[in-house]
Amino acid sequence: MTLALETTDLKVRLRLAEDWFTVCDLSTLIPGRGVAALLPDGRQAAVFADRAGRLYAIDNRDPFTGAAVLSRGLTGTHQGRPFVASPLLKQRFDLESGRCLDDETVRVTAYEVKAA
Predict the structure, then answer these.
(1) C-alpha separations of 109 from 2, 8, 51, 95, 102 in Å
(2) 8, 24, 29 from 5: Cα distances, Å
(3) Which positions fall inside the Rieske domain (predicted)?
(4) How many CB atoms lie within 10 A of CB 87?
(5) How far apart are the first and last CA of the chain?
(6) What are the sequence ranges of the domains in the chain?
(7) CATH of domain 11-115
(8) Which of 107, 36, 29 has the alpha carbon at shortest distance from 69?
(9) Which of 111, 104, 18, 11 is nearest to 70 (CA)?
(10) Cα separation of 116 and 112, whole Å?
(11) Per-residue pLDDT for the chain (116 aa), expressed as one digit of tens each?
């Protein structure tokens, strides 16, 4: 089943500790492009939807530069895994695990995300 995003009132939600936090309407996500969401503790999450409708969320802060820019990165796949490349130094971060594909010692927080 395909949802007509223009007609749905589904919300994108991230799991934070024991609760779900609403970050935006599903209709605001454009496949392949990220949005930044401000979290209650002041951090930011980068939220993405792919063309198949899967949702991903990782920390928006690039650990190599300290800038909150991952939501502006380019998305793609590497060996079947979805990633976002930082717009600054181009390191790639796995959207499911938060692991940096270019430096195994670095990772960002990956959030459980759903539309409900």
Answers:
(1) 29, 29, 23, 10, 16
(2) 5, 13, 9
(3) 21-116
(4) 15
(5) 15
(6) 11-115
(7) 2.102.10.10
(8) 36
(9) 111
(10) 13
(11) 344 445 568 999 999 998 999 999 999 999 999 999 999 999 999 999 999 999 999 999 999 999 999 999 999 999 999 999 999 999 999 999 999 999 999 999 999 999 99
DSSP string for the chain: ----GGG---EEEEEETTEEEEEEEGGG--TT-EEEEE-TTS-EEEEEE-TTS-EEEEESB-TTT--B-GGGSEEEEETTEEEEE-TTT--EEETTT-BBSS-TT-B--EE-EEE-
**Tokens 């792919």 appear where?**
50
73: which 2 tokens?
């990165």
